[in-house]
Batch of 2 targets.
Target 1
Amino acid sequence: MNLTLKIWRQKSANDKGKMVDYKVAGISEHMSFLEMMDVLNEQLINSGEEPVSFDHDCREGICGSCSMFINGEAHGPVKGTTTCQLHMRSFNDGDTIYIEPFRAKAFPVIKDLVVNRSSFDRIQHSGGFISVNTSGNTQDANATPIPKHDADLAMDAAACIGCGACVATCKNSSAMLFVGAKVSQYALLPQGQVEAKERAQNMVAQMDAEGFGNCTNTGACEVECPKGISLSNIARMNREFLSGAIK
Ligand code: SF4
Ligand code: FES
């Protein structure tokens, strides 16, 4: 395939940035989207130009670092797929592909397609943990019976990889699907009850302090989430928040 790429180039956080056109030729339909970006970068390096910066790590859909807005969609056109799991067979010879960073006030661009998502880390630090005795008397995990239904829902919530697609997709740049998933994975389990009163309160306070917007129930986040995190996690977070507010 021969493709035209329109890519957001931005030298630094303070640079204004602009879309720049590139041509890539001989792209195999079996390549992943990131391999196609590797081909472009090799081309740029060989011609003495600055390669396009983008985040990636696992390249198998589990680390959540490959944040890209592709043709106006977070992680591109295929549902339930991260950018690294997207393959060029989803595109056609002669296509023009628009590639931009995830855009949100709380995710400032560092360079080109790389954004700073440490705001998510700070939300996690504010309440996304449980207290476990690790002094040598650690209880066997199977010693606490958990209803299968609750375990399944907690596992579904824990599938969130913290990629930020929900924020990038939301017109309010809301992080409530991410925070809802992180609150839910503990709220559904007995191990999560020790900090339950403060968890949602603290995580929501940090979410607001980072500058994320509120949820207005559009549901775009759920549609674009590569892990299929359900909006019902936002409802659970709201219930946890309210019950935490009642002293
Ligand atoms: S809720 Fe989905 S879109 Fe949002 S950070 Fe988690 S995995 Fe990514
Ligand atoms: S590189 Fe890890 S999820 Fe894409």
Note: The CA atoms of residues 145 and 231 lie 27 Å apart.
Target 2
Amino acid sequence: MSNPSPTPELWNAVDRAFEDWLAPADDALNHATAAATKAGLPEIAVAPAQGRLLQVIARTIGARRILEIGTLAGYSAIWLARALPEGGRLVTLELEPARAEIARGNLAYAGLSQQVEVVTGRAVDSLDAMIARGEAPFDLIFIDADKESCPQYLERAVALAREGTLILVDNIVRRGRLIDANTGDAGVDGARKMMDMVAKHPRLEAAGIQTVGAKGYDGLLIARVTAERTPAAPAVARIYETILYGSDLDAAAAFYSGVVGLPVAVRMGDRGVAFRLDAQSVLIVFDATKTVPQHETVPSHGTTGEGHIAFSVDDLDAWRTHLARLGVPIEREADWSLGGKSIYVRDPARNSVEFVAGRVWNL
Ligand SMILES: C[S@@+](CC[C@H](N)C(=O)[O-])C[C@H]1O[C@@H](n2cnc3c(N)ncnc32)[C@H](O)[C@@H]1O
């Protein structure tokens, strides 16, 4: 075999040789694999050589807190948890209760129950709960669950990270289908969307690596989280709105400037008047019948007079991440009839708070 062709059989044989040299199975790993087989679970755990790679990476970066999305029977969790130093912790998320139970058994058999928590439920929900309760950042995050949710996992992983956290995403290449926009496969589309997000993400620097081995031709995304970027302060941080429906704008303007004593910032023809409240805030009194012609189809605008506050921000993604870090749940997202997008969060003191993408008002 002087110059062998790289066939799947050969990749497999080399993987087995790596396993023999570098990642030999022991009782706990064999037990986990046997339990998964006995329960009829699909053979989708990482290969031994990959498990060893995860472990070496975790040790190299000195990971004390590891998050895994996608537990199955806990095989990769065993490799990762064994990399933890004294007092370290691994949280692993699994949708299927039966799989989570098998994983707990396998981790207990491996003597790792103290270090590892298996959380059952939809990973997106578990991640949101962690963000909401202000979970400390993780040093290493291994994403290995359903591929269609990769964009959501990535966004939440960044929210649960610090500068220097490593995010690894498994199985992104999928025999090269990653570069095909027309597979119609939700998993491939999810991985592609995630790659787009990574490419544009202000807090990620990443590399992709193609792999061959016991699991065929696939690949791994390796992303490092960089320093947090504070969203740029908008010129006008707060816009308070009062909406009129065809009422006398001049009378309203006279009231706010004359009686309330607010300086006029700008007059927007017959559509509205903006008053400066302070260096950061303006109050806009506008006539919805002239400003939002189809205002009755925009329910949020029908209620804004009851205490709705809009923030003008440039970068909605940055605000999503920022809100996630603050543990503020996003209530909903919406398209503005005037153009732009908004995200709404609940504010118990008012009706709602709206973050508006882009400068909607040209003040
Ligand atoms: C590839 S397996 C994980 C393999 C495991 N990391 C290993 O190497 O041993 C993916 C797992 O993710 C789980 N999963 C799929 N969708 C999920 C979701 N929405 N939330 C949480 N887990 C999910 C599946 O049930 C499956 O057990």
Note: The CA atoms of residues 240 and 322 lie 22 Å apart.
